[in-house]
Amino acid sequence: xxxxxxxxxxxxxxxxxxxxxxxxxxxxxxxxxxxxxxxxxxxxxxxxxxxxxxxxxxxxxxxxxxxxxxxxxxxxxxxxxxxxxxxxxxxxxxxxxxxxxxxxxxxxxxxxxxxxxxxxxxxxxxxxxxxxxxxxxxxxxxxxxxxxxxxxxxxxxxxxxxxxxxxxxxxxxxxxxxxxxxxxxxxxxxxxxxxxxxxxxxxxxxxxxxxxxxxxxxxxxxxxxxxxxxxxxxxxxxxxxxxxxxxxxxxxxxxxxxxxxxxxxxxxxxxxxxxxxxxxxxxxxxxxxxxxxxxxxxxxxxxxxxxxxxxxxxxxxxxxxxxxxxxxxxxxxxxxxxxxxxxxxxxxx
Amino acid sequence: xxxxxxxxxxxxxxxxxxxxxxxxxxxxxxxxxxxxxxxxxxxxxxxxxxxxxxxxxxxxxxxxxxxxxxxxxxxxxxxxxxxxxxxxxxxxxxxxxxxxxxxxxxxxxxxxxxxxxxxxxxxxxxxxxxxxxxxxxxxxxxxxxxxxxxxxxxxxxxxxxxxxxxxxxxxxxxxxxxxxxxxxxxxxxxxxxxxxxxxxxxxxxxxxxxxxxxxxxxxxxxxxxxxxxxxxxxxxxxxxxxxxxxxxxxxxxxxxxxxxxxxxxxxxxxxxxxxxxxxxxxxxxxxxxxxxxxxxxxxxxxxxxxxxxxxxxxxxxxxxxxxxxxxxxxxxxxxxxxxxxxxxxx
Lengths: 349, 346
Ligand SMILES: Nc1ncnc2c1ncn2[C@@H]1O[C@H](COP(=O)(O)OP(=O)(O)OP(=O)(O)O)[C@@H](O)[C@H]1O
Ligand SMILES: Nc1ncnc2c1ncn2[C@@H]1O[C@H](COP(=O)(O)OP(=O)(O)OP(=O)(O)O)[C@@H](O)[C@H]1O
Ligand SMILES: [Mg+2]
Ligand SMILES: [Mg+2]
Known about the structure:
Radius of gyration of chain A: 21 Å
Bound molecules: adenosine-5'-triphosphate, magnesium ion
Number of domains of chain A: 2
Largest sheet of chain A: 8 strands, mixed
Structural class of chain B: alpha/beta
Strand content of chain B: 15-25%
Number of helices of chain A: 14
Number of strands of chain B: 13
Number of strands of chain A: 15
Oligomer: heterodimer
């Protein structure tokens, strides 16, 4: 493993048991994460995109050891931390922070904003009194909140303000690694830009390493060096951000890109959308072959039978798609990439 | 895969009484014992079948306005300063929870910004939707459950029967959001208020949900007030857009002219900061400064301190009125002198 990898998940698997609640109705096992391998490199950002329910948040929680893996390993600076227990985890946690998707449930409603942000500052950095308060103020301002808001309780804030409190709290312990789970999704553009700039700044200044989970491809593309695309618990495509966004190699990535809404009137008037049809398969009964087979317009026999392996893509990264390996070819070259160019015109009937 | 015309310009039924009429509505929030203004002089009408987008910076009052329309702002922390909100002729302000029961669910459905606000962590989601249906329509438990599942399918929840038996914490963020959408439309309301309904959803699911809302609007004439910080969603989905700034409406316009040629400098600044207009991995151009804090608004234009076009002595002396005609209004004294760039101008 190259030495600039700070945090890695090797062949991660997470099963959630379907038996829940007091009356144990069996609802089948859910494999939320299905053999996922990914690496976070120092000072770089990996963007994680994918279908809702594909396992993005679960991957983030596995990497930070907030939940236990069912299989696979988590390596922090080449050290296996998969089995680490409470005490050593506490040390790890100061190096790693996560901004959770739903700020409403991740902020303690009985604490004032100043204490919510101040807590990890004292806990991880030992600052108290005025030093702590000054740091709280600095963080509030850096996420675009007013100093006065330190006195508020979470339910006195707007949704976006709460989201920013969660970000300020995560940054307070000066983490080396930050997992942002839809951290800016509820923010309007000007605040969003301010926070993305703050993160980019922390990265260039202190080498912050980030996993950036978001459904918003334009944001992911803006902040990420590399992008991984998930579908039904698996990574289906991975590579440099530009390559993935400009020349998607997986049909699902292509569909994701075409569904990005356009604000510019010029692009709107000309763009037609590819809306994926059909249900995503149930995670408790995933298809035998490729996870995307039930909705893929290019599916052919092997896709129903075998799970595609990751193969290198021109321009960097890998893709798990049979089109790339055994699909139709033209003069020996795969039609995988070419298919998407014609797809746009093909679907405009 | 199917293609889909991105926007159909449907005719908006004019001439009939509006479904929603917000008239000069002003609301204070009580903070540490003192009332501070969150919303000032809001005017807004929504007709049946119309989709109105509400945009504005974080903290500008969008959710508060939405909750006011449902009569959901707690009396304990708020005070009506003036104005009214009528939904289908029914005055909402000053009403008790009991009075409002008749309109919630049937007339107005709401999707809340944070899914966990409307879900009870202790109950299975299918039962929660079924409960809403039974409360409004009666009927047997079994029918309500079947309908709950049908609604989950409608919002593209795969494996709806099994998901209905899940508790909220067992669902991904996007699934939770779709459960809330299913709950809000379960009684097929005339008006749907959707506060950031697709924020946590990937774009393909987002496209499916917006498509579904479009169908509901077409088939049942459901009107929609869509709150979103995502201007692209507003552009593709709405007929009209309203911009809130520091608790005031500062511009309202049909969607296309708004994106082509905004009339308020704040709107223009918003459109300039779209990620589509920016280069990757370099700092985004941002609107400098922050909106005024609650209760600390300047005497003149509330945007003046951040505005690139501000003229001292003109913009910052007295409150600015709305200019323009009915369909297109803007709160900028200099609007007619300015040529402001829209979404397309870099
Ligand atoms: N219960 C309350 N007590 C005190 N202040 C409140 C309360 N509810 C809302 N506010 C304040 O009112 C203002 C408007 O809040 P609102 O939730 O309407 O904003 P918003 O436009 O929806 O923002 P966002 O995009 O971040 O969700 C905010 O500054 C918020 O802090
Ligand atoms: N505690 C849990 N118990 C049971 N199932 C769970 C639990 N947590 C997650 N799941 C399931 O695991 C799958 C992946 O969930 P996850 O939250 O990781 O998705 P996600 O990619 O983050 O989706 P979203 O974009 O909607 O947030 C989903 O099917 C979800 O319902
Ligand atoms: Mg998630
Ligand atoms: Mg809000």
